[in-house]
Amino acid sequence: MNRKTNTLFVVTMIAALILSACGNASAQGPVTTSSSGIAQINGAGSTFAQPVYSQWIYNYQSVDPTVTINYQGIGSGGGKNAIIDNTVDFAGSDSVLSDQEYTAGKDLQIYPMLAGAVVLIYNLQGVNQAITLSGPVLAGIYSAKVTKWNDPAITALNPGMALPDATITVVHRSDGSGTTEIFTNALSSFSADWKSSVGAGTSVQWLVDKAGNGIGGKGSQGVAAAVQNTPNSIGYVELSYAIANKITYADLVNKAGNKVTASAESLASAMNDFASTFTDKLTNNIVDGTGVNSWPIAGYTYIILHTTSMSDCSKAQKMLGFFKWALTDPAAAKSAADLGYSAIPSTVSTQVLAKLDAVTCNGSPVLSNP
C-alpha cells in the first residue's frame, strides 16, 4: 500500500469511527457525561430569566470547569412540559405548576431563584421626561376606562407636565407568558373590578381589544416594537429587556403612596414584604407589597427539578452545586442586579436552600454526597 493509499485508508477509517460514535450517541439519547468527565446539564423554559441564566452559566465556567450547562429560552410552558417529559434536567418558569402538572411530573419541586420586575414602556409624543403612573391608573388604562393621556388621573400624578390630548393605544402580549401572569396578578391586586372581570393568567381576554384601542405583540420584542412604532402607546415588558434595549419606562406610585423606580433594591423590598407567606410548594405572589420602597409589579422566576427520581448522582450534584452558587455568591447577585433582576434576600434564600438540601438521588441527599 503506497503512502497516498494508506493516508486515504486511515482518513476513511477515522470518518467511519466518528459516524459510528455519532450514530450510537443519537440512538442512546442526550449525552450526560463526556469522555473527559465534563457533566452536561440541559435546561429550558423561561425567556424572562434567560439573560441572567446565560450570564450565570458563563461565569460559572470559572467556578467549576467540569460542568457544561445549556439553557434554551422556549417559554415557561415549554419548560414545564420538558421537565415533565424528562427531556431536560431542569426547567425555568415564571408561572407556577398546576395540580395536574405536579401529578404528571410525579416528584417535581419549584424553587424561586430570583425576582424580576415588569415595567411600563411608552411612546408619548412631545414628552421627553419620565412619567409616573399608579396601580389604579394602570388598571384603568388596561380596562379601557382611562383612554386619554391627559385624563385627570394621569395629570394628577405628573404635575406641570404637558400631556397630550391623545387616545392611549394599549399594547399587551399576544402569546401566553409568565410576564403577563405577573402583570395581570398585579392588575388584579390594584383593582377589584379587574380581578372579577378579567383575572390573572399567562393569557387573558383583554378589555382594550374589545374597546378597539388594544394591540397584541408576540414576546417582549413584539410589545416593544409595537410601542416604539405607535405614537401615544403604552405596553409592558421585563425590566431586564428595557435595560438591555435602553427603553425608557415609567415610575410607579406603590401601595405605601411612594413613587418608586424598578431596581434590584425595590424588588428586594417586594420580596421581603412576602417572605413569610410562601405556600408549602414554595411559591409566592409578590405584587403590590406594602413596603415603602417596594416595586408593585414583581414576580419570582423559578427552577423546577425532579426531587427523588434523578439517577445520575454525579450530574445531580453538579447541577445543584450551580444553583446553590447562584443563590449564595455575591458575584452572582451582582450579575443579576446589573441585568435588571434581584437576587433573593436571605429571608427567602434560607427556605430555598433547605428545599434543595432535601433533593435525593438513589435515596441519598444530593448536596451531602462526597
Keywords:
single chain, 370 residues, alpha/beta, D-Maltodextrin-Binding Protein, domain 2, 9-stranded mixed beta sheet, 15 helices, elongated, disordered N terminus
CATH superfamily of the largest domain: Periplasmic binding protein-like II
Radius of gyration: 24 Å
Helix/strand structural class? alpha/beta
Runs in which pLDDT lies below 50 for 5 or more consecutive residues are 1-36
Task: Tell me the overall shape.
Answer: elongated
User: Under the CATH scheme, which architecture of the largest domain would be assigned?
Assistant: 3-Layer(aba) Sandwich
CATH topology call of the largest domain: D-Maltodextrin-Binding Protein, domain 2
Question: How many strands in all?
Answer: 14
Subunit arrangement of the protein: single chain
Calculate the terminal CA-CA distance, rounded to whole Å: 54 Å
CATH class term of the largest domain:
Alpha Beta
Helix content: 40-55%
Number of domains: 2
What does this 3D model show about the protein?
The relative contact order is 0.16. The chain is built from 15 helices and 14 strands. The strands form 3 sheets. Strands 1, 2, 3, 4, 6, 7, 8, 11 and 12 form a 9-stranded mixed β-sheet that branches. It is α/β, with parallel strands linked by helices and 370 residues long. It is elongated. The chain has 2 domains: 32-115 and 299-365, Periplasmic binding protein-like II (D-Maltodextrin-Binding Protein, domain 2, 3-Layer(aba) Sandwich); 117-297, 3-Layer(aba) Sandwich (D-Maltodextrin-Binding Protein, domain 2). The chain is 41% helix and 20% strand.
